[in-house]
Write the structure tokens for this entry.
Amino acid sequence: MGRLEGKTALIIGASSTGNMGQVMARRYMAEGAKVMVSGRKQPELEAFAKETGCLWSVCDITEEASINDLADVAAEQLGGIDIAVNATGWGLLTPFLDNTREQLEAMTALQFIGPFQFFQAMLRKMSKGSGGRGGSLIQISSATSVIMLNNHAAYMGTKAGIDHVIRCIAHEFGEEGVRANTISPGLTDTPMNAEAKQVPGLFDIFRESYPLGRWGTSVDIAAAAVFLAEDECFMTGENLQVNGGLTLRRNPTAKEMDAAVAAAMEAK
């Protein structure tokens, strides 16, 4: 019997081929859960659903009406929501002084306001006081919500902000049967980082900061997401640092990254 047998799960941020959301969806289904994936890209969602047998629904997390529609569709088609995961994100890398108002508004909409409203919609379906059966809310955060990385302030700030919102949810809705936690990967081998991985020496300099000797994968994050989704998980309001011990140390500095790339290029 799978660890999530009989559970239902909604994962938003799963409309890019092979991304973290899709890897989590595959793992949840392998553990027996009935899964709906969501995101902005309809063709990718349809293709993934056809391949795996899961349900799908388009949603733009920056639009409140779209979120509320998704909540209704998911609750109806899944037969209730036991697990809700937000895996959306935008890896904006911009020097601090160069961040524009437009970028800040877009980042806030995607990584703070949207997730806030997504969790509101989920709580209206999941909390026992609203007729739900309780369950688990999971936010995919980042190690950079607690440790530094150059040129990443807008990303880091919004991730840290929604981490604290998750703590508020855990505090306020525990009596409603809802647990709420975050997972913080470090540098992870995902499609979002595919371009960075092609830069000679860049991923290697990060690996030196990991006590466990390797950077993370989406499979690592999916394993943690299964634990948080299980009924046996007696945890709420926590940020799991699923990053091989990176937060015991630090990310490399911009100068160290530049030097590593330059050395790798020279060695080629």
Summary: The chain has a mean pLDDT of 94. The chain has nine helices and nine strands.
